[in-house]
Model the fold of this input.
Amino acid sequence: MTDTELVKQAMEGNERAFADLVRRHESRVAATVYGMLGDCPEAEDIGQETFIRFYRALPRFRGESTVATYLTRIAINLSLNELKRRKRRRLLGLHSIDESEAPTVRIENPEWREVLQRALQRLDPLFRTVVVLRWIEGYSTRETAEILDVPEGTVLSRLARAQKKLQHMLAPYHEAGIAARPIHSPDTDVQPRPVG
Amino acid sequence: MINRLFHRSRPHRETTAKNWQDEQLPDALEHALAGLRRDRFSPFFAERVVARIRREAAQQPAELVFFLSLTRAFRRVALAGTAIAVLVIGINFMVDKSEVDYLTTSAVSLEEAILPAFAPSLEEIL
Done:
């Protein structure tokens, strides 16, 4: 059954059809949310909220974009809102858990996945969004531009800058020979070099 | 291991300190980032979403509650207003009817009309 047919049935109140849609697109939404927010408890809530917003928007869904694109757009917007909320809480000192205080990674036991994840979380949300959509989700540049509603050139330039920043942040692990301690902060958590 | 990030992705080229950042890291980085993809929430995610939708549908949103309370309040006011209106129309009708009765009673003589009731009659005066 196609997405359009499932959407039509869901609009008529068929819960099973909507559950099928959720199952079908869970992976894409999960990849987007986890990519944007990292592995955190809020990620699943944002994932649920994404589908609930989609459910409420069903009567207005005209099928101009695919269900996947539509869901990804909602997931990106909700994730960006969550990042703003985290930033506000950090500024107000109300919240103790954010990306800078996420579970720590000791360089003595470097898990490349976690190091990369932390580097990704340190990227500015604008750059993180294109990295998640383009490299983690595998959308094309045109699709990424469509989801973010920006020109393709903007996607490419953000991607290039994100790449440069990531390279810069990960460089110490390369220079130090990865298995060794970081050059700049021995015996401490992973602290990528500041990017200018 | 993170070393994979810096491995050569193009076997025909030598990795040098000079070129790894410019040429090889992007490919490796792209692969590594693709490996970060986590594509599942916890089990029974779809069921939880549907349950949440059902729960939210069962709970009336605040705006709807406000609207319904307004409707209920208006119904009471409307009933009382209708009762008062019926009463006023009834009284009005009765008043009108008594006036009609008054007008239709036997004609008043000129004397009665001109002279007050307590005024002594001409016969009494004379």
Chain A has eight helices and no strands.
